[in-house]
Every structure is written in C-alpha cells, then in structure tokens.
Amino acid sequence: MKMLRFRSPSIRSLDQEVLCTIRLLDDSEISCSIQRDTKGQFLLDHVCNHYNLLEKDYFGIRYVDPEKQRHWLEPNKPVVRQMKSQQPYMMCFRVKFYPHEPMKIKEELTRYLLYLQLKRDIYHGRLLCPFAEAAYLGACIIQAELGDYDPEEHPSDYIRDFKLFPKQSLKLERKIIEIHKNELRGQCASFAELNMLQRAHSLETYGVDPHPCKDFTGSTAFLGFTATGFVVFQGNKRIHLLKWNDVSKLKFEGKTFYVIGIQKEKKLVLTFHTSTPAACKHLWKCGVENQAFYKCAKSSQIKTVSSSNIFFKGSRFRYSGKVAKEVIEASSKIQREPPEVRRAQFGQSRSFNSLSHKNLIMNMEPLVPALPSTNEYEETATDNGVVAMKDSAPLSPLKPSAATTDTQQQNTDVGNSASSNDLQPSRVSMETSNLRPQTPKANDEAEEDKEGPLTISELVYSPCASMLPTPVEDSQGGVDLLFSSPVQSPARLLRELHSDPDIQAQLEAERERDRAYERTRLASRSRMSGVLSSSLRLLSSNERVNTCVLSVARFVAVVMGVLLVTVPTLLLLLESDIDVSFLHEIRQTPEFEQFHYEYYCPLRRWILCRISMAMEHLWSD
To answer: Which of 11, 61, 615, 617 has the most CB atoms at less than 10 Å from its CB?
Structure first.
C-alpha cells in the first residue's frame, strides 16, 4: 500500500485532509491523502504516475454513491464536492474510452491495462462471446498467464482453476485447452495479450458499458456507447446502431432519455426510460463524453451541451480532455524507452485467478467454490454452443485472507465500500444455445446498411446485474427490480389495463362521453371561433412552428429584460451630475428638457411625497 500526499496551493490544516483509496485493474490498491479542494485530475495523474503511464486519456476513475449509482470522477471539479459517501473514499481505476484500434496503442503498458479491463468485461458478461471466440480469448488469457502448455506441469483439468467466464462448460474448457496446446505455443505474454485485444475488438459488444433501460413498450434494453456510435441491445440482437455523425442530440428529462438522430435521411427519435433520474443523467453524461471523444477532430471543437431545449432549464455539461485523434497523434510521438510492465503474479489479484508461470497452485479456497456444480460441466448438445454464464468465482485461486476481505467489503455500508460494481461477484443466467459464426469485420458496413436488427448471437445479452451502472442483485429480482414500480414502468401498467375487459368498457364509455361533449362545444361556437381554434390546433401540432414560436418568445423575453435594465440605467445617468460629453449633449436637447420638466420632476416629487408620508406614518405608530 503506497501513500502519497497532495497539497493544494492554499495552506490548509491537517484535519481537512481526506484519505482516498483507488483500486486498480489487477485489484491492488493505492492510497493518498488529498486536500479538500484537490481536483479529480490529481488522482488520475497519481495513478498514471504509479504505473508510469503516458497514454492516460483512455482511462478514468469511477466511484459509486450511497444510492448505488456509478459515476465517473470529473477531472475539473474538486473530489470532495463530487463524493457523497462517507470517508475514506473508495474509487476504481478503469478504462473509460476503449481504443477503436488497439493495434495503434504505442506502449505495451497501455495494452496490458486494456487487456486487464477486457478480461473483467469477459468475466462479468459485458463482452458477449460466441463459443469459438470465447475459446480463443480464454486460450489467449491462459497463454499470457501460464505460457506454453506443459503436460508435466499441467493436469488434464487445469483450466478448471481458471474462472474466465461466470459459467464455463467442460466442453468450453476442452476447446480452450486444445487452442492453448496447438495454436498459441511459443507466444510470450505480451504477444498473447495483443492477440486477445485484436480478437476482442472485433466483437459487437467491445467497449460497451451497458445501461439498463426500458423502451416505449416496457421491454428491457441495454444502451451503450462505442467508438462507432450509439448502440442498443435487446434479447440476442443489436436493434439499433446510430453512428456518431448521425446523432444530432442527446438529452434527458427526469428519467427519460432521448436520442435524436438521422437514419436513412429521416429524423429518428429514440426514447428510453431509466430507473432513476440519477441513472438517466449518468447515461446522458456518458453519451456526451463518448460522442465528443470519438467524433470531434480536435478538443477545441468540443462545445458545452445542454440537456434540454428549454431556456434556462436543464443540466449543462462539457467534456474536458483530449479526443481520440489527438490521443493517437500524441501516442505516435512518444520516444522514451518502453517502461517495465509489472504483470500481476499469483496471489496479487483478488478478483482474478492468476496462476504463476509454470506453477500450478491447487487446493486453495477462492471467494466462492472453485469447482462449480455438476450441471456446469454438462456437455452442450451442439458443436457451436455459446458460453453459459452464471454464479462462479473470479478468475483464479485466491488467498483466503483476500477472499475474506472481499466478502466483508461487500457487506459493509455502500458509502465505505462504493468502489466499482466490477468488484462484486457476478450473478447472471444465460442459456446455452447454438451460435451463428462471427461475422467478418469486412462485412460490417454491408450488414449495418441492411434493414432490421443485427443478430449478434443466439445468446441473450444479459450482463451481470450487479455490474450495471445501477447495481442490483439477481436474487432480489435483477434488472427488472429497477423498474418494478408501476410509475417507473408505464407501458407495463397500460398493458395490464388494456387486458382487463371491464376497464376497457369503462374507457370506451368515457371516450364516447368526451366525444359527445366535444361535438356539443364545437357546435355552440361561432364560425370565427372555430376557424381560430383550428388554426391554433394546427400550429400546436406542428413541431417546426412550435420551435419558431418558442424562439420568438425567448427573443422577446430577452429584449424586454435588456430594456428593463438599460432604460432605468440611462435615465439615472442623464439625471445625475456626471459630466460626460454625450450625456451633456442629450441634456441640451428640447425633447429631454420637456421630458425632464413634464414627466421626471413630477414623478420624483410624487415618489418623495409618498416616501415622506410613509415615514411619518411609521414614526407616528
């Protein structure tokens, strides 16, 4: 545990220092004491200095508030103002922006940190893996951890002690062993990690941090932001992909999130409902940051974004940092000697089962039992099955003390343990089924232009509920628990109402009464009022006209405000004794003299008289 103390330019007393603990990607921790006005950028620089990392713009620091809502630490705001939990603060260092092309990363250290993040994504179900891809990615991880297969050191079931996926079948383990034996022999750790990055970035869910939402029908959907654009996953399909150039605006109001864009030369408005307003705002800020990072050519092009079109209403936010093109350019100019990559050895990682090179450690108790139940090792019926994911341990045998620490940490108050949802054991159920082979990258553009959703696999995209931006336990209802309230799921309530015949009859009777009343009211009006009403109705139904009327109203309000401030100020200047040339010239005009004697002087005498009467009344009382 390393300690570092930051001091702000202003001298503060020691009792105003705050302890922060940051958990890294290999689950080791570093701590530091900061001042109350220390900004988030200092913590990010502290972690990058710990790693000797230069390509730091891909990374960020994440924390969880007492309401279990995840947030990214904003670099330009003081840490204490952002954190709502109890001290000491607990945070996590994570990949915030996934590189569109990992091969363009300059340094091996950066690639290794991205490898650790993707390993977490695979385990927690965020990176959806078809069977063939899962086997290859798992073999790359084994090669990076163990090196070449050695029959003298590795028993026939050595993969069992590697928990690469939340649930892995015996068939998948055999396939991983086959690839590890035959295809990856001779590869060093860095080369195996590079192969893993290259294969993982071709998957449709690469870089997706899933946000659970409900669409207008009440069905669960997962929203995400990638280097390509805005994506929506529902079931086993990617139902929407809007490239960043086609996304014109992201906004939110309360718990409703809107994506406004253009698709096939037509305006498209997608509406989703989150569980809480805080989750909706977090989703909006993630979208704004990703759009700025991947879309803009220069950081100077980034603009402040408002969450609403209404004047003086809504949140305002601006991404502060380099964009993807600037990061790649800066990486190409790095000339230093490559820093040493200190890979996590056995026992250092509390979240991943990492066996040391050529050394198989057996009979150590992990956080949960290392050997899954019998049904986890049942053979799948077909050759191209998909990885089934359910309760399982993290990636390797753990120290008993570390396991105890993690178990206790999950039971403590959220304010003291709110680090990242990645740190909790995953609980997710996915059915084993057949999978269509992965679509080659060369055909991506053609598939994007096709009508209808893109089937990414026959496996339902269902990342760990406890890993989501608003974490919940599957045992308590999972993602659906977030939307269990009828107020939070209006579509479900409407479906229940429409399925009741008695309620349907009542609704129809009410509609008939409303229509009869409307006909009577319209008949009693004159023809002129009817024409005026129709015109107003036409205007209110026209979105473009509404926008113009709103703009005119804003303009009139601004002009009136300026006049109310400017005219009294100018009048006071003219009636004062300030000797300025242009004021003196105005005072000499006949119009001003007439205004002065006929209006200003009587008004002043009247006001003074009223004030004196009021004062006398007060004194008499």
So the answer is: 61
333 phi and psi, to 5 degrees? -95, 0
The pLDDT value given to residue 543: 60
Strands 3-5 and 29-34: parallel
Token couple for 275: 């569980």
Residue 125 in contact with residue 428, Cβ under 8 Å?
Answer: yes
Long-range (24+ apart) CB contacts under 8 A made by 116-120 are 116/25, 116/26, 117/25, 118/196, 118/197, 118/200, 118/206, 119/164, 119/352, 119/395, 120/25, 120/351, 120/352, 120/422
Report phi then psi at 295, rounded to 5: -95, -40
Ramachandran angles phi, psi of 140, nearest 5°: -65, -40
Residue 154 has a CB neighbour count (10 Å cut-off) of 19
Give the pLDDT of residue 578: 77
List, for residues 286-313, the tens digit of each pLDDT value.
999 999 999 999 988 888 888 766 545 5
Helix (H) / strand (E) containing 32: strand 29-34
- List of residues 6+ apart from 28 with CB closer than 8 A: 344, 348, 349
Burial class (CB in 10 A: 0-12, 13-18, 19+), 455: middle
Q: Give the count of alpha carbons within 13 A of 45, CB side only.
A: 11
471-481: pLDDT as tens digits: 444 554 556 65
CA distances for 372 relative to 401, 475, 583, angstroms:
21, 18, 89
Tens-digit pLDDT profile for residues 70-110: 999 999 999 999 988 778 899 999 999 999 999 889 999 99
Amino acid at 247: V
Residue 142 has pLDDT above 70, yes or no: yes
Q: Give the neighbor-by-neighbor strand order of the sheet with 454-455.
A: 247-253, 256-263, 266-273, 211-214, 220-225, 229-234, 237-243, 454-455
Rounded distance between C-alpha atoms, residue 190 and residue 105, angstroms: 13
pTM: 0.62
Interatomic CA distance for residues 265 and 110, integer angstroms: 40
* Helix ranges (DSSP H) in 83-130: 108-124
Q: What share of the chain is helix, strand, coil (3-state, %, to 5)?
A: 45, 15, 40
Q: Which residues contact 367 (CB under 8 A, 6 or more apart)?
A: 393, 394, 398, 403, 406, 407, 425
